[in-house]
Every structure is written in C-alpha cells, then in structure tokens.
Write a structure and sequence with these properties.
By secondary structure, this protein is mainly alpha-helical. Helices cover 60% and strands 0% of the residues.
Length: 97
C-alpha cells in the first residue's frame, strides 16, 4: 500500500467504475459474494454491459495501442538522453565481458 492506503500493483491501478464493476475483497467470503453480485448485476443490465464495454474498449484504444506505446517509449528515451550524467558515473559502469 502507498501512503494514501491505495493498493499498489493491483488491478485497481488500471480499473475504475467507468469501465468495470469493482469488488473490495476484504475477505474470501466478501470476494465470492462480490463476484456473485457483480455477475448478477452484469447479466441483468444490458445498458450497463454496453456502457462498460464501450468505455473499456475506448480506454484500451486510447492508452494501450502500439502507436501510444511507441510515443511513450520515445518520450522516455528523449528524457534519458537529455539528462546530464557526470562522466565519473558513466566511466564507473563496466560493461559485461
């Protein structure tokens, strides 16, 4: 957990109520009951299925397509190459032989 009590490295980092039915697994029983309730809700509500599906598809297209990944990698590369790294640090790194 981080300092705000948020779980790190979990699906909560990628999901929100705009495109998912969230379940708070406070215990094994709560998880099972949450899954059952979510599946019933999802099965009975066509509008909800459509809304979450469309929002999820849009999020994936905006954030996880190859063009976006390439742009992000280039941003990181540009930042890394613009850094002023002292020569003593660069020279202290020995390549694997």
């Amino acid at each position: 957990m981080d300092s705000d009590g948020k779980r790190l490295g979990s699906s909560a980092d990628y999901l929100n109520e705009n495109y998912a039915i969230l379940i708070e697994p406070t215990s094994a029983e709560a998880l099972v009951n949450g899954l059952i309730n979510a599946m019933h809700k999802f099965a009975q509500d066509e509008k909800l299925r459509s809304q979450l599906g469309n929002a999820g598809r849009e999020r994936v297209q905006e954030n996880f397509d190859w063009e976006r990944k390439i742009d992000r990698i280039l941003e990181i590369y540009d930042l890394a190459t613009a850094m002023d790294i002292p020569a003593k640090i660069v020279n202290s790194v020995k390549p694997d032989e």
